[in-house]
Amino acid sequence: MIAGIGTDIVETDRFKKKLLNLPFLQTVFTPLEIAYCQKMGHPEQHFSARFAAKEAYMKALGTGWAEGADFKEIEVQNNAEGAPSIHLLGGSKRYFDKSELKDIFVSLSHTSTHAVAYLIITK
């Protein structure tokens, strides 16, 4: 059963300007996400998509940034085929594990100008 749906769109230029701002990147992204994005041909597209996924997760959850959630507690990982998934850490993981929520499904897409994330949480 679907418990929540979230979507977000981000202009990639926002992140193109922040690529050299390591303190900002370290505030929003995990070391795994930073390493992944920086090795890609157009890192701003990948950072933008991950940021959109974090925002879409909070929208699907329906709590916004309440409960002390942190951007870095919502990590986007990719499997061997490149498919994205959400990995929760810290307080975000504890909150999810205590809830009736079961699975998180995420889809990311990006172009040279925009990145979008679509996310579904099930019970």
Task: State the main characteristics.
123 residues, alpha+beta, three-stranded antiparallel sheet, Ribosomal Protein L22, Chain A, two-stranded antiparallel sheet, single chain
Question: What report would you give on this structure?
Answer:
The chain contains 5 helices and 5 strands. It has helices at 12-16, 22-28, 31-38, 43-61, 90-98, and strands at residues 2-11, 74-78, 84-88, 103-110, 114-122. It is globular and about 40 Å long. 33% of the residues are buried.
CATH class: Alpha Beta
| CATH superfamily placement | 4'-phosphopantetheinyl transferase domain
Quaternary state of this entry equals single chain
CATH architecture: Alpha-Beta Complex
Strand order of the largest sheet: 1-5-4
Helix/strand-derived class? Answer: alpha+beta
End-to-end separation: 5 Å
Give the gist of this structure.
With 123 residues, the protein is an alpha+beta fold. The chain contains five helices and five strands. Belongs to the P-Pant transferase superfamily. AcpS family.
